[in-house]
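Incident log entry.

Two folding requests arrived from the same account within the same minute. Monitoring flagged them as a possible duplicate submission, but the sequences differ. Recording both here for audit purposes.

Request one:
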Amino acid sequence: MFKLIHSIHHVAIIASDYAKSKHFYNQILGFEIINEAYREHRLSYKLDLRVDDVTQIELFSFPNPPKRPSTPEACGLRHLAFRVLDLNLAIEHLALHNVECEPIRVDEFTDKRFTFFQDPDGLPLELYEILEN
């Protein structure tokens, strides 16, 4: 079988408050800034953040973006999940920055631990613990 897709290159997120979201993704979640540009013709910022060696987040600002339809069960992209090595440590770090996480759950299919939290615009984000061997 032909493998068309090899990895996720980037995920694009539109923020209602660019400065707040830039701080959240860069300073709290620790994603490195690759490039930041202001596109005057669009009245928009575009911030490229490095998640890992392959994956990036594109953070955009636009004037008056529409709100997200609803909770993670809305039709469309459900949530964005990040791999962590120590879920408890990740939750503690977020708590230091006043980011609240849901109670830890266990995936019934993999027995892996995970939790959800939200970015400044309420985008559902997941921490999924994958222990190194």
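Request two (distinct sequence, not a duplicate):
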Amino acid sequence: MDSRTRIFLVGGLVIAVLVAGVLSLFASGEPDGLERIAIDQGFDEAAAGPALDSPLADYAVRGVDNESISTALAGVIGVVATLLLTVGILKVVQKRRRPGPGTST
């Protein structure tokens, strides 16, 4: 990978982490679209909660008491997890596309 590509990718990662970690501090605490409709229609109390017992449920990190830090940390963890998953998938795809020894291209 050449240096321009590396700078572009690192810059993109830094921007994504900043957006997830810093701008999330300014997100509205008001309900999002689906939650607002449930409240307006009166069935918000019927919600069953998260299907999985996720450590990042409800845009927060379990065990972090400060709501702002918890939300920012959840965003950063989400960015890093997405990056790692993407890199892993790309490596698997790249391995499958490489010709084996003795094959011509």
